[in-house]
Amino acid sequence: MATLDIWSSSELAELKPITLGVLRSNATRRHGVTRWKLGSSPPLVSKKVDTIDLHPQLLTEKWLAYGAKVLFHEYLHALGNIKHDSAFYSLESLWPSKEAKEMGRSFTTEMSENRAQWIWRCAKCSVSHYRQRRSNGRYQCRKCGKVLQDVTNTT
Ligand SMILES: [Zn+2]
Ligand SMILES: [Zn+2]
């Protein structure tokens, strides 16, 4: 973040005291969150932000590159860019890791697959949809028109 030359070192120093925590591991769409202290709006960022929580899986080696980008996203919020507006996204796009940009979607997919209790599977083409509930014979494969079967997700 320091190499981007956008923030002064004193602004960046304010990020240091922010406590980092973890989200519940069953979060699938939320990968990070900046929690603000209620009420007061003191001048220093570090006094306004309570904690930044990241998805626990982002701290594993596999997802670390994406985790760094999520933390960058939350730090942008902490530095006063509250809304996801075009200014926010142009700052976010400065993050240098191209890999991280592409990992977001796979992370979402993998987290929801991990969380799913059931797989709705087509017996013919083996297409699989990961779901929390059983399909109970209510859905058909879009390709084959076969009724999807419920299989327990063991992943
Ligand atoms: Zn955000
Ligand atoms: Zn099928």
How does this model look, in words?
The chain has 155 residues and is α+β, with helices and mostly antiparallel strands. The protein folds into 2 domains: 2-115; 116-155. It has 5 helices and 6 strands. Strands 1-3-2 form a 3-stranded mixed sheet. Strands 5-4-6 form a 3-stranded antiparallel sheet. Strand 4 and strand 5 form a beta hairpin. Helix 3 crosses helix 5. The site of one zinc ion (ZN) has 3 residues, from helix 3.
What's the short story on this structure?
By secondary structure, the protein is α+β, with helices and mostly antiparallel strands. It has two domains: 2-115; 116-155. The chain contains five helices and six strands.
Number of domains: 2
Oligomer: single chain
- Quantity of strands, as a count: 6
Class from helix and strand fractions: alpha+beta
Query: Which consecutive residue ranges, at least 5 long each, have pLDDT under 50?
Result: none
Share of helical residues:
25-40%
The first-to-last residue Cα distance is 36 Å
The strand order across the widest sheet is 1-3-2
Number of helices: 5
The average pLDDT is 90
State Rg: 20 Å
- Reading the helices and strands in chain order gives HEEHEHHHEEE
Anisotropy-based shape: elongated
> How many strands, which pairing sense, and closed or not: the largest β-sheet?
3 strands, mixed
Small molecules bound: zinc ion
Estimate what percentage of residues fall within beta strands: 15-25%
